[in-house]
Amino acid sequence: MPETLAWSAYSDPMLPALERERIFARAWQYVGHLVELGEGPGYVAARVGDIPVVVTRDRDGVLRAFLNVCRHRGSVLASGAGARETLQCPYHAWTYGLDGTLKAAPRSNREPGFNCEGISLRPASVGTWGAFLFANPDPEAVPLADVLGELPELVAATGVEVEQLQHHSRAESSVDANWKLVAENFLECYHCAVAHPGFSAVVDVSPDAYELASGDTFSSQFGPVRGNGSGLDTAGEVKRSQFHFLWPNTMINIFPGRTNLSIGPLLPAGPERTDRFLDYFFGSETDTAWIDELLAFDGQVGVEDKVLVENVQRGVGSGLIERGRPLPNSERLIVDFQQRLQTALG
User: What is the mean pLDDT of each successive set of 10 residues along the chain, which is 346 residues long?
Assistant: First the structure.
């Protein structure tokens, strides 16, 4: 029987820097959606893991991504999202165009030899899937489409056309647990029958019905609607649930019923804390009452998961037990995730 990661990996203060270098500095991650850029020039500031990035779109519609770090003294440059044609540092007002070039630096005319030309934000990579924006801090990253692989086809097969989705809302939260524990909780439904009674009343989580699949860059879970289930109106275009995890930290949820999809990342905020957000998208004809029902349903699952992973963080942080014992079948997506971690970290 395999062993888990050493439990010290969920609290080791030395690991975040290594994970930043070996994982997030070369990872594609969902960072937002095109509507946030406005109708013309605009920007979206985000994080890939804990690396600040900014995505811009200029007047010609060209998308670019950069590290969101001023080249003067290293301040984070932009925050939020919106329509504008420049990015100005809040520290000393160095101002950059949406192409990343430095346009102005106050008092620089008083500095002999200083020239704005040649000073630019450090480029990163940007990609889109429908209205979904992804960024990768590596300017030479492989194309996003290569990483997504068959994921768009799997989503389309359930009746969800991402190009037709409309953004509804964003839910933000924090969990007092390491990001890897939050990811691992997402990657198994072994706990669902015990800890998620509402979810399990809708989705058949029995081992013979609930499917797990791992691929080169993402893993998937497929759950059929439970016969005579209750708790969520599942009548609609989407006949079964899909839950996808794009390595290393982007989660995608599709519930049975009307056209819906939620997507968002897990963002390390220290060894024992994780920030996260979920953007909810729905079909144009999805009625408001059903949307409210789904948001309440998914919100309850999130409340239950927060308690679970924070309990695990306290347990593995006791320091008196070295490792755990995963079930290689029911938790094989966790085994796969931990193998990816170990390979990435060397």
Answer: 88 97 98 95 98 97 98 97 96 98 95 92 98 98 98 96 97 98 98 96 96 96 88 93 98 97 98 98 96 97 98 96 94 96 93
Give the chain's domains with CATH numbers: 29-140 (2.102.10.10), 150-345 (3.90.380.10)
CB distance 131 to 166 below 8 Å: no
230's tokens: 């209750």
> Residue 1 has which token pair?
């029987």
Backbone φ, ψ for residue 154 (5° rounding): -65, -40
**How many Å apart are CA 318 and CA 57, to the nearest integer?**
47
Distances 208 to 204, 241, 329, 330 between C-alpha atoms, Å: 9, 15, 12, 11
Q: Contact 246/28 with Cβ under 8 angstroms?
A: yes
DSSP lists the bridge partners of residue 219 as 214, 245
User: Which residues, 6+ apart, have CB-to-CB distance to 217 below 8 Å?
Assistant: 147, 148, 149, 246, 247
Closest Cα partner for 251 from 273, 276, 282? 276
What is the SS3 assignment for 60? coil
